TrEMBL record:
One Pfam family, short name: CarbopepD_reg_2
Name of the featured protein: Carboxypeptidase-like regulatory domain-containing protein
GO molecular function terms noted in the UniProt entry: carboxypeptidase activity
Keyword Hydrolase set for record: yes
SUPFAM superfamilies (alphabetical): Carboxypeptidase regulatory domain-like
Keywords: Carboxypeptidase, Hydrolase, Protease
Lineage: Bacteria, Pseudomonadati, Bacteroidota, Flavobacteriia, Flavobacteriales
InterPro entries: CarboxyPept-like_regulatory
Taxonomic source organism: Marixanthomonas ophiurae
Amino acid sequence: MNIKSHLFRTLKNLLFFVGLIFFSTSLLSQEISGRVYDDTSVLPGVTVFNSNNKTAVVTNEDGAFTIKAAVNDTLQFQSSFHESQDKIITLAEYRTILIVELKQKVNTLDEVLLSGEEKEFDVEKYNADLSKQIENDIENNPFDYGKAPAGGGVNLLALVKLVISIFKKKPEEKIIYATQIDLIQLFEKDKFFTETLLENTLKIPKQYKNLFLDYCAAKQIEEALLIEENKFQLLDLLVVSSNEFRDIVKEYEANK
């Protein structure tokens, strides 16, 4: 093998490896685009979350999205009314538009309506059960019903009190709402709710951050939504609130 041929082959291999490195680097920095549907139409407002680089976007009114992703990254598609879906990105999907179809959730009411087997309220059984409960309570707690009248019947006032106690509702649990401080701390400390998500996904300018979070707090977002397992539900609410807030800001700036 002569020196010229050896140098040519070495240069060829070097160019191949340089090209491979360049190609791999470009894949790591690329964005992938797609569209989300269900069996009836395109889906706006679906959260697309890259679990590898922790970025998130929301599909627009045409169900379209663009997100930073590399080969083998996992995209999570989340919607309040659809079953979630995970998608691992392949090399081939960089050359086309990613199409994702989500299945609609079927709730309990839908199942009842679809089955057509909704049971009617059984008045006779209900009255019999109530009478039996009263009878057992009289037998177990006779002194709670006062002195029986001459006819041997039960004290009517005590009986009415029992019926009221049966139907009396338990007091509702007090709902705790997130404050502006809670939301500010969330965006300062959380790995998902970040300044980047606030500016790029929710499209809230940096100078309006605190005012927007104050607006969200005024809408009474439950504090329970701030925990990790409820993050996509919270994001749905923030997307709606950000659209409203931007409309308010736009109108304000137009009238200045």
